[in-house]
Write a structure and sequence with these properties.
Blueprint lengths: L6 H5 L10 E11 L2 E3 L2 E5 L5 E6 L7 E7 L1 E6 L13 H14 L2 H17 L2 E8 L4 H7 L3 E8 L6 H19 L11 E7 L7 H10 L3 E5 L3 H9 L3 H8 L14 H7 L7 E5 L7 H8 L2 E4 L1 H6 L7 H6 L4 E3 L12 H11 L5 H8 L1 H6 L16 E5 L4 H9 L7 E4 L2 E5 L9 E2 L1
Parallel strand pairs: 1-5, 6-7, 7-8, 8-9, 10-11, 11-12, 12-13
Antiparallel strand pairs: 1-2, 1-3, 1-17, 3-4, 5-14, 14-15, 15-16
Helix pairs in contact: 4-5, 5-6, 13-14, 14-16
This protein binds zinc ion (ZN).
The site of zinc ion (ZN) has 6 residues, from loops.
Length: about 425
Amino acid sequence: VIDPPVAARAATATPAVPPGGGRIAARFVVAAPDRVLAPGEVVWDRDGRIVALRRARARDPIEPVCVLPGLVDAHVHLQLAALSRAPRAFVPWIGAVLAARAAGSAAAERRTIARALASLRATGTTAVGEIDSSGTSAPALARSALAGRCYRELTGFHLGRDDARTLVAARWRATRIALRAPEGAAPLGAVAAGLSPHAPYSVSPELLRAAAAAARHLAIHCAEVEDEQRFLHTGRGPFADLLARLGRLRDDFRAPGVGAVRWLEQLGVLRRGTQLVHCQHLERGDAQRIACAGAAITVCPGTIAFFARDLPPVPAWLALGIPVALGTDSLASNRTLSMRAELRAAARAWPEVSPRVLLAMATTNGGEALGLPGLGRLRRNGRADLLVVPAARTLDASLAAFVHGEAPLLAVRCAGRVVRGVAGAAGAAGRGR
Ligand SMILES: [Zn+2]
């Protein structure tokens, strides 16, 4: 919906650009995929808070650019570097990730995180859903300009009720302290806290319940491979072997006898605030269960390509009203941490999905998947997380060029501050810092 000209609104006086803040008047300001100002104007203050968002006045100089919300990478592992030897079969790949993690140091992990954050900012990502396996991501994100949610990871297929509660309490507390943020509304510039019980094959029912009792916002790898479903139904297969090797298969283990989504539903974990990652192998009725529960799904096209997996039915999920978000996953299963590459891959994978809906998957749906619906959109009093790209003649052409990767990023602003700018494009990047 393009806002019609509103004479009264356009006639109101432009507030002076606050010192240290900025302003940009553009041919198109995409406040959200379903709300476009043409031409539009965004003004932000020195703290990076949007103080005005409206139609530009015809007599103002309008830059031939399109302003978009910063991208939301709903699922990333900042700590995971590329593997020197990366098996393309899933269970051996998990073994390689665990071995790399055991061989690494905290200092190396901090350097990997810093590089990952830099490459995300440079490619237009201004908010993340990070899976923090070791506790080093939370302080790095607290110092970064990015927004989003940091989910502290939990594994432990062997943990009973008391051990599960102890682990959850310790990690949940440490994460919130490191982020200096409450779980709910994160103040401007802050990253909120969540928990990530890793997957139904690596987390005991007691640990899943304890995580759900502590935190409203969860991220869970779900139905990623067929062997996961087989393990949950029968208790057999490569995951049973892996858990036995790791000494994590309890004597009292009984297979749930249902697939991943129904298992999470039975444990009370399938609910609003839960983000299910991958969902490659849903069973009959699972998508409806996810939609009814109000949970979100995040897909990672780079990981799908890495493991040469089948494409999940994203258009059908979107038709059910599920907020389907995009994520880069990690460099252990993706060539680059670029949401623009994910968008391009998604546009190729699901050509029936319009550029506008693809953009929603990379912005507003990401904010919903993180339980932070203010992210991935421009709004008054929200963060000035925005991208500047050249405008085509029409809005549709501008959006198509963006999702297909044809429009170069002229500028990326995170809470108003330039984190990527192109020399000579200062005007296009907006005035201000
Ligand atoms: Zn993941």
